[in-house]
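Morning F.,

Quick status update on the modeling queue. The single chain you submitted on Monday has been processed. Sequence for confirmation:
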Amino acid sequence: MFRMRTFAPLAAAFALIAGCTPSRPPYPPTDKKPVTDVYNGTTVTDDYRWLDDQNNQTVKSWVAAQNAFSRSLLDKVGARGAIAGRLKQLYGEKSVSYNAGFYRGKLFATKYQPPKEQPFLVVIDSPDDLSAEKTVLDPNTLDTSGTTSIDFYVPSRDGKLVAVSLSRGGSEDGTASVFETGTGRKLDDAIPRVNYPTASGSIAWNADGSGFYYTRYPQGNERPAGDMNFYQQVFFHRLGTQAAHDRYVTGRDFPRIAEISLRASDDGRYLMVRVANGDGGEFAFYMMGPGERWTRIAEFSDRIREAVFGKDGKIYLLSNRDAPRGAVLTVPIARPKIASAQTIVPESGAVITSLLPTADRLYVVDLVGGPSEVRVFDLNGTFRGMLPTAPVATVSGLLPLKGDEILYGTETYLENFAYFKYDPKSNGAARTRLVNSSNVDFSDCEVVRDSATSKDGTKIPMNIVRRKGTVADGSSPLLLYGYGGYDISEVPQFSPRNRLWMDQGGVYVDANLRGGGEFGEAWHDAGKLTKKQNVFDDFIACAEYLVGKNYTSPSHLAIEGGSNGGLLMGAALTQRPDLFRAVVSHVGLYDMLRVELFPNGAFNVTEFGTVKDPEQFKALYAYSPYHHVVDGVKYPAVLMLTGDNDGRVDPANSRKMTARLQAATGSPYPVLLRTSSASGHGFGSSLDELIAQNTDVFAFLFDQLGVPLETKSKN
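C-alpha cells below.
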C-alpha cells in the first residue's frame, strides 16, 4: 500500500494565524463611500458600492492588496508545501477519466489524463476495447496556458463531423467550431456566442448533416448593451457559410431570461426546443417537424420537465402536474396533445430525475433523498426490474447503444466513477473499460446516512463520511458542505481531496437541504423565493445535530459551499457566528438586494425573487448576508474565493462581503479574499489552479482548526 510521504512536525506552524494573533489582523484599508437606496419604503445604505466596478483601477488595486494580504498569511502556513504535494499526488493519480456523451456507431467521449490541463475529445470503438481510441480535438494543443476548455459538443447523425463549443479562462463565452471526426481537421465554420454563463449552449444537427441548429446570444448591435447576455435564440447554420448569414429559427417571443436546449429525433426529422424560464424550474416545449411546422407541446404552466423522442413514434414526458415527484406520460409525435397524454409510470415515493426510452425499454432514473437508482420498464409501463447499483450511489450518464443496451455511470463517496453496460436480454450489467482510474483508496472509510430535525420539524438527511472506527467524542475536525437551491440535489461523488481530510481524522458531511431536488418539486419550492430561510435553518440544524451527537464541536467545525452554496455560507456565518470556527465560501452571492442587477442576475429572479415585489424584498432583506454583518460580532475565520472571469456570480459579491466583514468582526480570526485571474465559476480552470485553490483551502482549514498532520496515512 502506497503511503504518503512524511510531514514535518507542524503543531507550532499551525498556530500561525489562529494562535498568534491576539488582535485583529492588519487588513488593507478599505474606504467607505455610502450610497443610499430606498426599497419599498425601506432605506438601505451600502458603504462599499464602489467595489462593484471591477474595471476601476482603484478596485483593481484593492483586489491586489487583498490578494497580497491573504498570501502573506496563507504562504506562511508551515505545511503548505506538503499539502500542495499531497494534493498534486491525489489528483495526479486520477490518471484517466471518461465522460461518454454520444453513440454514433462509435462512442464520443471527453477524456481527462494528467499532465494535460483540460479534457479532450475522443472516439472509441467499444467501451470494452480502448485500443483503437482516437483523439478528435485536444484543446491543450490550442492554448499552452491550459485554460481553453470544451464547453459541450454534438456529433452529426452519421458521426463524421462534430460541433464543439470552446471557451477560455473559465469564461464559458463559447464559440462553436466544426471538426472532422476521422482526421481531426478543423473546418472554416466558426459561430460566436453559442454559450455564455447566463445559460448553457446547445446544438442539434439536421437530418443529412449539412448543418445544425444552435442557440446564440445577441451579436453586434442587435440589442442594447444591457441585453447582450439575454434573449437567447435559435439559429440554423449551413456548413461552409459565414455565421453572419445564419438563418433565424425561433426565440424572439421567448422570455428575456430564456435558457434554451435542443434535441433532435434519431432520424433528424424533428427538433425539440426546451425553454427554461430562468433558473426557477419552469419549462415550455416546442417541436419543429417536417416543413418547419411548429407545435407547442407544453407551456410553463403545464409543469412538464422533460420531453424525449422515443423510437416508437412517441414523445416521453416527465411531468410534475399533480405529481410533485414526477410521472412519465406519452403522446404520439403526430398528435402531441398534453390533454390526451397517457400515464405509463405514475408517481411513486422516489423522485424521477430523467428518463431514456430505447427500442423496447424505458429506463427511469430515480432520486431517493440524495442517492439514486434506476427502474426498468417496457414501453407500456410494465415494471421489468432494477439496474444493479451500489448503495448510497449516484447513477448518471445513461447513454443508448444498440437496441435496448445502454451505458450508465455510477459512483459513490468511496468508489470512483465507472461505466457499466446493461443488456436487458441477459439482465446483466458488466463493468466496462470506461472508468475513472485512481489509486486513491477509501476502503478504510464508511458512509453513514443520518438526519437532523430543522426548525419547523422537517427531517434533513445527511451523508456522513468518516474513517471506520472514528470515535464520536467531539474532537474530530468536521467539514459540513451544503447547497440548497435551484432544484440541484447533493448526490454522492468521489472526491480525491477528501482523502487528505480523512487522513487527518476529518469527518466530511454532505447535507441534503431544502431548495434542492432530493424529494421532488415540493422540496425545491420549500427552499426558494420567500421560503429561502428554510435552507439556512436546515443547514444550521445539521450543524447543531452534529455537535449535539459529538461528531464534532464548534471549535472543530468548518463549513464550505459555493455559488448558491456561497450564499448559504454567508447566511450561516451571519446568523450563527458562534456555531462555526471556519468558513470557506466559493464564488458566493451575498448582496441579495442587488443580485438581479448583476450581469447574470435576472436569471436568478425565479429562484430568489425580486426587490420590486414587496414580499420578496422583505424576505431577501431579512437574510441578505451582506446586510446582516454586525459591527463588533466575533465572526469565525473566513476564506472567500472568487475568479475575475466569473460570469455567473459577479465577483463584486465577494469583494463587498469581505470588506464588510473585515471592518465589522470583533474576533482575531482572519477574513481573507482570494481572487484568481485565471478562473471563472469553477468551469475550465486548469489543474494547477485547482490544486492551488485546494492548497489554500486546506492550509486555511488545518491552521484554523488546529489540525496536526499525521506522519503516515493510508492512500
